[in-house]
Amino acid sequence: DVAIKLGGVDPVEEPIPIKPAAHYSMGGIHANIRTETPASGLYAAGECACLNVHGANRLGTNSTSDCLAFGSVAGEEAVKHALSNNFRELPRDKILAEEKRVFDEVLGSEGNERVPIIRNQMKRIMSKSVWVFRRGDELRSALKEIRHLKERFKNVKIEDESRPFNTGLVAALQLDFTLDLAEVTIISALARTESRGAHSRLDYPKRDDENWLKHTLAYYTKDGPRLEHIPVTITRWSPSVRAY
């Protein structure tokens, strides 16, 4: 019934068309088994976190147990931290600088670009060139296009100029952050010259444990993402050739 109503396809008579979709992120904020991140007092769990429990290819339904188990852990650890630490005041100058960026530069922009247009173009670029099967030349082209969109975003115009409950501003800020994540994803995919789990490079079809059995960490800098790598901790089962 759903196939007929939404797809115009009767599954009794013909196959239901399917295609890959990006429905889960296996990367995220670097965190340990206690959900602690490198930033003291900040905890991450669920899909936003990279706790290294899924490897390079999450098994079906494991995300639910991940959220339940580590959501509980994160809450417990955060309570312990809050009860045993005095929190420092946030630097006032940094708060004011971020307020200026959000309200003066983003909300106050008089440019002629629109958030939905840039967002749709970003989605098209990522779906076309950074999807299931990747190639170096397509990734480099996508990186150039995403960086061009980041420049265009500086001229974005938000029609609603009010501050409270401004969903247009929220959408713009989400797009700003998502463009950063798109850039990080492409740069990381370009650097990893192998195929592993959900990362499949047509120009590097084999897994390379000698050079790439490690995690990719990305750090923000004013000049763009900076990549570092840390080794994968092997406790019981070493990687082997997938021959099934």
What report would you give on this structure?
With 244 residues, the chain is mostly helical. It folds into 2 domains: 1-88, no CATH class; 91-244, Methane Monooxygenase Hydroxylase, Chain G, domain 1, CATH 1.20.58.100. It contains 7 helices and 6 strands, in the order H-E-E-H-H-H-E-H-H-E-H-E-E. The chain has helices at 2-7, 62-84, 92-106, 115-129, 136-153, 167-191, 209-212, and strands spanning 29-30, 49-50, 133-134, 200-201, 214-219, 226-231. Helix 4 runs antiparallel to helix 5 (136-153). It is globular.
Short description:
Helix content is 43%, strand content 8%. 14% of the residues are buried.
Strand/helix succession: HEEHHHEHHEHEE
In CATH terms, what is the fold-level topology of the largest domain? Methane Monooxygenase Hydroxylase, Chain G, domain 1
Total count of domains = 2
Structural class: mainly alpha
Labels describing this entry:
244 residues, single chain, two-stranded parallel sheet, Methane Monooxygenase Hydroxylase, Chain G, domain 1, mainly alpha
What secondary-structure arrangement, pairings included, does this model have?
Elements: H1 2-7, E1 29-30, E2 49-50, H2 62-84, H3 92-106, H4 115-129, E3 133-134, H5 136-153, H6 167-191, E4 200-201, H7 209-212, E5 214-219, E6 226-231
Parallel strand pairs: 1-2, 3-4
Antiparallel strand pairs: 5-6
